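Thread title: Can someone regenerate the structure for this chain?

I was given the following input by a collaborator and told the matching structure tokens would be attached. They weren't. Posting the sequence so someone can regenerate them.
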Amino acid sequence: MDNQRSQNNLKANLQRDYRERERLAFRNLLGALNEVERTNARSRREILRRATECLRRLGQEQVDLQQQLGILPNNAAGTGSLQPDAIILSDEDFEWLQFYLAQPDGTGGP
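Best answer:
Regenerated them for you:
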């Protein structure tokens, strides 16, 4: 019985720690987004949507500027959107993203 209670406490503590890291990650993302564009996004889904739009726009601006400077030939940006070869995430961020995207309502909850 004590072993079961101990496991439940451990699981609850791990979940609490995870949720706190998740809240911090969203606060940091919203802060970074507000440095680039003012937003009143409140839900996590809205924060992710706005951040995605911002990244795409900034990527396209980078391609446009590189073309103007002659760094990229015209056909290198042909699709009008920047598609990176790879996105590097820490293992912890990758696990969090997998978990978050697996949630049907986008809240990160069960």
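The radius of gyration is 19 Å.
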